[in-house]
Specification:
By secondary structure, the protein is α+β, with helices and mostly antiparallel strands. It contains 3 helices and 9 strands, in the order H-E-H-E-E-H-E-E-E-E-E-E. It is 21% helix and 20% strand.
């Protein structure tokens, strides 16, 4: 009597190297869950550690030298604030801005450390503050009428304080602004420059 070797003949289950329908579904579900998990982890990492560069939230936002800024906006040396839209900034050449308000027409090609980086978001309800009004030489929010001097000090309207700002430094002649930390604007009543009264000058906003 001969004994049939184990594994010979018809075997139960799916053929070798073939996958059952149930096995295929299990693998498909596993792959899907794996992909969703990776997407979730990737989104979480990007949210917690965003790669912010060149815009709002960048602690080392390089604006260039004074000559670079003047090259982009020639009126900056005559006191018109430079708008940097990616970070919603007004970069104010302080001595030139004061000269513009005073009407002396004096130009300042390089103000050195005398700049102010103002946040264009109105501290009242967050509207985007437009460029300096050419009538009043103030920043005037068109949403609710808050008004600020060229240095961001509040003069009128419902805003609770002056315009918020960001710290800056100069490295090898390049202006670096830390837009990762917003500094509250000066409190109401601050008057370091431009004490004209709201009712005495024409405006762009009502």
């Amino acid at each position: 009597m001969t004994t049939q070797p184990s594994g010979w003949g018809e075997q139960p289950g799916p053929p070798v190297r073939e996958i059952s329908r149930r096995g295929f579904l299990r693998r498909a579900v596993g792959v899907g869950v794996g992909l969703l998990t990776l997407q979730f982890l990737g989104g979480t990492i990007l949210f917690l550690w965003p790669n912010i560069k060149g815009g709002l939230g960048d602690p080392n936002l390089a604006l260039g030298t004074a000559a670079d800024i003047a090259g982009q906006q020639p009126e900056w040396v005559r006191g018109l604030p430079f708008i940097y839209n990616k970070a919603r900034l007004f970069v104010v050449n302080v001595p030139a801005a004061k000269a513009r308000v005073d009407g002396t027409g004096e130009e300042f090609d390089d103000p050195g450390d005398e700049i102010v980086a103002l946040y264009r978001k109105c501290p009242h309800l967050g509207c985007n503050v437009p460029q300096l009004c050419d009538r009043s030489m103030w920043f005037e929010c068109l949403c609710h009428g808050s008004k600020y001097t060229v240095l961001g000090e509040k003069r009128a309207g419902p805003a609770p304080r002056g315009m918020d700002r960001f710290a800056h430094r100069i490295e090898e002649g390049v202006y670096i602004v830390d837009t990762s930390v917003r500094i509250d604007g000066p409190p109401i009543g601050t008057e370091t420059f431009d004490n004209r009264r709201n009712e005495d000058i024409p405006h762009c906003a009502g």
